Amino acid sequence: MVTLKATGIVVEYNPFHNGHLHHVQEAKKRTGADVMIAVMSGNFLQRGEPAFVDKWTRAQMALQSGVDLVFELPYRFATANAPVFAKGAIEILDAAHCHAYCFGSEDGTIQPFLESMELIDQHRVSYEAAVKEAMSCGMSYPKALNEAYKHILEDAQKTDPPVDLTKPNNILGYHYMEAAKEIRSSMTPVTIPRIVAQYHDDAVAGNAIASATGIRKTFFTSGALEEVSGFLPEASERLLHKWQQEREAFGSWEYFYPSLRLIIIREGASRLTSIAEIVEGMENSIYKAALSNQTFSGFMEQVKSKRYTWTRIQRMITHILTGFTTSMREEIPHASYLRLLGMTANGRDYLNRTKKELKLPLVSKAASFKDPSLTADIRASDIYALAMTQDKGSATLGTDYLNRPHIL
Amino acid sequence: MVTLKATGIVVEYNPFHNGHLHHVQEAKKRTGADVMIAVMSGNFLQRGEPAFVDKWTRAQMALQSGVDLVFELPYRFATANAPVFAKGAIEILDAAHCHAYCFGSEDGTIQPFLESMELIDQHRVSYEAAVKEAMSCGMSYPKALNEAYKHILEDAQKTDPPVDLTKPNNILGYHYMEAAKEIRSSMTPVTIPRIVAQYHDDAVAGNAIASATGIRKTFFTSGALEEVSGFLPEASERLLHKWQQEREAFGSWEYFYPSLRLIIIREGASRLTSIAEIVEGMENSIYKAALSNQTFSGFMEQVKSKRYTWTRIQRMITHILTGFTTSMREEIPHASYLRLLGMTANGRDYLNRTKKELKLPLVSKAASFKDPSLTADIRASDIYALAMTQDKGSATLGTDYLNRPHIL
Question: What is the ipTM of this complex?
Fold first, then answer.
């Protein structure tokens, strides 16, 4: 049997837009891939937010726009900081037997990443000490990392860093490469430049590029999908329309806040301390803010602090909402399965051919696989479904448990 | 200063109806009371249900219909079985310096209660052994109590029991008297016969009597307060209309079910085991039923079992909803404060005169009193408020904490 060459990408698709389409097409072309594999966040995302639409819908968008296989990045990794997020994603792509992985970056070429990695490797001890020190002074993780990186550049007497690690996509890319090195993956790293958002004129033509954040923001401001359709491939637009007809609302913290608030009040400050990422003292300010705020924006305004990034706080409340504790998190050191959310005929062909080379069990029927990480995924999906239908009580739960992958 | 004579009553007022009005008036007359003191369940009731309207509204109904002082029966006692419910209520009435307490009963005279108590006291050891044995055979508490009572009657060769303890109001009355004896209260027990529900013809005349359960059922079936107004004093009717205008919905498990379901799914079966009253195995059936049922009736249909009464199961889910654990419950052995929900001028006068004789601290500003039982009351009130406004996110929490008693 001829081996098919697969390229992996790490995605959130919140929602899938023209920039994502471009990335899939470019990644495929540059790596000469036969098959495109995406590892995608589930219903809660890396910035600690509920997804705009659920993972099954987002997987369909991907399958209709050039992706052949979609695996779920487990909740534990999808909602974690950059190094852990990257580790889970790379473990899955490596287990799926990808030849290469491709990420968008501000830098856009791979050589500087390799140089930065080498530089940091040469100064590993002082680098890690500097990260630790910066964090003990109350710096957020991303800032501490950059502080340490700056120290190393100074030590090496470099004025220009090989890669600018203050840029968010460069940081993720760097962590993918570190994670791949850590597990001695044979995958080739490839990066392509991120496309800068274009103007609204292009949107009218239907092929404009805007960030997913920008698209959601425009939608939530106007309430009309028509306002953002210029930035979306046809499949995305159609699936978003279908979602809107069926559910009335899209996922957001504003919409989920009544559910979050109920849970915070019921838990009380002291029980919140068992939740993952809750650091001392935050349980009190989160509890007090929930007591006195009827809106999510008011809540965050009161909770936010200089000490923790907005994203970090959102990750805390994500774990509160889903009931994800520190001890649950500790039970999940590595990605432990390939949860298939969907595949094309081409993807299925790939799986049939590489079955024996997959390094982790392939899960297409979640009900028949027991794993603490999968339990967390399923619970997060159920909570998402309940919060989406909070006023109707109509959520059919257990569907995530029973759902089978989309086959295109 | 002349001492005022107070009579205590134990109430739920869910909602306050003509039968309650009759009871207040009769109790006052028969005991020659200057002041009527009600100890009233808060937002969750003895059958393990959310109240039809909140405790502040129900306290107002009472104050406008002959009650002078309303104290809250703390959550821990209000949602417990008959002996514990009775104990908390009697401790509060005794602490409020009542001369007498008066309860409605099927029997209607006090002598048979005294005889039953004496009988059980004489056979205390075999009685308690029989209760224990019956419960170990899987019998519910009320049934076990009756089984033990039957044994004693047989031993004493009595064919007619002094009091029929299969009747719900007789049972409560018996427990009030046991609780009063336990704390050596000097209060005089008085009972008056319960009035049997009348026909609808009387309702039209505006002074018919129906049970609170019947009134709620009729309302929930028709959705119209007009259908039940014949059973309600004018004050109750007016306050229910006001509530309806402001809140749209009335408290019920059907309405609270989406909130309950969210919490059950988030907790997962294993964490439910820490909740008060959850007995082994129930955590699994409750979790499974929540997963697969979109309505409360479907949920209960699946959860109900021969082993546990409907009421018992409802108490379990009440504690799940409010997050009330076994260890919280153990921290509250006795009533520890008199939480004032409202008073008339007459009630205020009484408090001024008896201030020094009150056996528990009088709490009219909850914010300035720290107590684990009060914490549970406040949390239960907040959860009730959130579940009542689940789809609007408009609950102003912390109001229970800050609320001051109604003064009429």
Answer: 0.89
